[in-house]
Amino acid sequence: xxILYFAWIRERVGKAxxxxxxxxxxxxxxxxxxxxxxxxxxYAHAFENRQVVRAAxxxxxxxxxxxxxxxxxxxxxxxxxxx
Amino acid sequence: xxILYFAWIRERVGKAxxxxxxxxxxxxxxxxxxxxxxxxxxYAHAFENRQVVRAAxxxxxxxxxxxxxxxxxxxxxxxxxxx
Amino acid sequence: MIVPMSIRITExxxxxxxxxxxxxxxxxxxxxxxxxxxxxxxxxxxxxIAALVxxxxxxxxxxxxxxxxxxxxxxxxxxxVRIVHRVGRIxxxxxxxxxxxxxxxxRAAFEAAEFLMDYLKTRAPFWKKVExxxxxxxxxxxxxxxxxxxxxxxxxxxDAAE
Amino acid sequence: MIVPMSIRITExxxxxxxxxxxxxxxxxxxxxxxxxxxxxxxxxxxxxIAALVxxxxxxxxxxxxxxxxxxxxxxxxxxxVRIVHRVGRIxxxxxxxxxxxxxxxxRAAFEAAEFLMDYLKTRAPFWKKVExxxxxxxxxxxxxxxxxxxxxxxxxxxDAAE
Lengths: 83, 83, 162, 162
Prior knowledge:
With 83 residues, chain A is α+β, with helices and mostly antiparallel strands.
């Protein structure tokens, strides 16, 4: 699965994107964020406050309970501050 | 008293402004409009529908019951359509 | 604070770019600019028009607009206001009126611009005549413009998020 | 009706004049244009800043904006929409975002521009980082922006006076 990171989540993770083989237990966006948080110090820092993490599956905003099955790319980012 | 006319009131009266000696009985803007309406055919046509006539005394919007005492110029015009 | 305010009535074509630029030039405290442009359309009530002819009450027009700009400045934290209203003969596609508001944040700029336009439509002494092939006629005031202006009357001042 | 719509994300400075002119050129059915310009201020929370750096999600940003432009076109009788969002490093005084809406009458143009900006602030995937003398920091989302976007959700469509 292709995972993208933006803004300070990208900076904390230390990369803009990566290809990850996810375990079968990771079924939703919420599962993914929790699982990523356990991948080491940088990820733990990036995802320490799961409430503020926003997600998009294939470039569409989704909620934490969204299933990730069939996704091509999942993006994780903080609340948007454009405009 | 200096009286100014605008838009179709000006066109119907046939002049943009005039200096008029008003009788003492003309005390308010409403009196003035009624009195002007009796000054001949063109005035009668200009002021036939008194409801739509708007007024300003010395360049400030006023209601028909406004006193005209002390006014330097009184303007009569239809509802505004600027912008 | 003195807010830069410019009000102009002109028979010449309005240069929207120059007017808007004049409001923000050299400023770095402005975060939001709303520029409203009212343009002469080529139809009025479904009928083709050749031009609009705008009559106005010189002297009163400027002071009446200034009064409403001051009211807008009392209601919203503005950093600049610029209003240009054209009079005389205006052809389809040409600008009739430009209202530009500047503020630190967008809500104040949006609301002030809309407030000013609602008042210009109903309280500023301008009158529009339409030129058609069949002749000329004066545009009648629209009840919905009065309603639009009235909605500001009951609102408390300084209610916009800063 | 097909409404001319243009959405662009760019690292270059935004030419507000050219963008606005492109929307109205050769048209005589447009009676109202609202151009909102978001500008980089030189302070953020009272602290001097050197620049903003805008991050975005390429691909998603364009489609997300397009989705909201389509929503605006369903709600208001628009004759044109143009949105340009800058990314990369932006200095104080430079334009961050431009949203231009055109309609026959002013209310639709005003409301659609405000709607689009409220949504751009909260739903379009852009993130602002501030450069100060003391270092850099990411701007936090503001609750009032969410509230501003939420107020459109409960409104019936096509409620603007045409």
